[in-house]
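Exercise 7. Given the encoded structure of a 303-residue chain, write a plausible sequence.
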């Protein structure tokens, strides 16, 4: 697999536990202090033990200065796309261009339905997500002064005014694993955001990248238009044989391989241990950047 050449990003994936709300915010601030580029939170509005993710993102944006923010991933079935588009653009404006839109099709349908959402089949959920992406992008474009109309199967917009435009080009990153979602990622998204434990194998990553790339080509896009992000977890300690089990140097070597051979350019650490976040940001990230920069220079692929 190719190295798609994107700049490297490192982030955290923090549990939005409502039992300790100020600790959640402190971990986001710790992520910024550790030099990480991105802080993310899962979005399960039906989970009574969690803070509302959109409220949390807004609060964290106000309590940080540099770090970028995203849901990992935002639950589309419980957040209508037209309202979500305005909310995302507003948060991006208020944060000075620091918001990215990780987006998911939904999966826990009993819980979604219990909160008033509509139950969809997996295939329907992907089609609904495709419609939602079009709506979000359409509302982000106030340069088109026409009233915005979409008569979709799952979502309708009947003459809405467009805007506001976000402060920067917000990336839409999809959490995707199955072929139909991967094809949508290649055709319409700005990023692919899976979790390493769910991928199963490096061969599965290769196969998924190939589906995304083929879909991008089919849509007239460059495969490199899709950033590859990866949620990761592991353990720091003595050198081991497993992936991301060992000292920071071993982590860095393995993440560099995932960049150079499997196309990933963003690594988001799952976990709530501030010491691990500090090690990831302060030790692993600089080592990975150095290894990748040297290999790109040797290959002549520096962009």
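Solution.
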């Amino acid at each position: 697999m190719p190295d798609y050449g994107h700049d490297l990003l490192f982030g955290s994936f923090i549990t939005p536990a409502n039992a300790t709300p100020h600790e959640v915010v402190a971990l986001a601030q710790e992520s910024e202090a550790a030099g990480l580029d991105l802080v993310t939170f899962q979005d399960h509005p039906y989970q009574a033990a969690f803070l509302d993710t959109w409220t949390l993102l807004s609060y964290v944006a106000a309590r940080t200065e540099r770090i970028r923010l995203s849901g990992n991933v935002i639950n589309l079935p419980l957040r209508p796309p037209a309202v979500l588009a305005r909310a995302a653009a507003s948060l991006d404006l208020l944060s000075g261009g620091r918001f990215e839109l990780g987006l998911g099709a939904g999966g826990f349908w009993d819980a979604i339905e219990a909160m008033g959402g509509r139950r969809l089949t997996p295939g329907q959920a992907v089609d609904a997500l495709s419609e939602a992406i079009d709506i979000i992008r359409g509302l982000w474009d106030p340069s088109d002064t026409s009233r915005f109309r979409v008569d979709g199967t799952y979502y309708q917009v009947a003459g809405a005014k467009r805007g506001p435009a976000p402060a920067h080009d917000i990336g839409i990153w999809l959490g995707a694993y199955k072929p139909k979602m991967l094809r949508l990622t290649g055709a319409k998204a700005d990023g692919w955001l899976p979790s390493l434990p769910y991928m199963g194998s490096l061969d599965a990553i290769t196969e998924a990248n190939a589906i995304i790339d083929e879909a991008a080509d089919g849509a007239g896009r460059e495969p490199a238009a899709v950033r590859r992000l990866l949620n990761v977890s592991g353990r720091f300690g003595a050198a081991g044989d497993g992936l991301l089990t060992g000292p920071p140097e071993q982590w860095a070597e393995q993440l560099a391989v995932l960049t150079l051979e499997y196309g990933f350019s963003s690594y988001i650490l799952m976990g709530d241990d501030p010491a691990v976040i500090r090690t990831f940001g302060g030790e692993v990230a600089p080592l990975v950047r150095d290894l990748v920069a040297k290999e790109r220079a040797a290959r002549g692929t520096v962009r």
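Remark. The mean pLDDT is 97. Students should compare their own answers with the one above.
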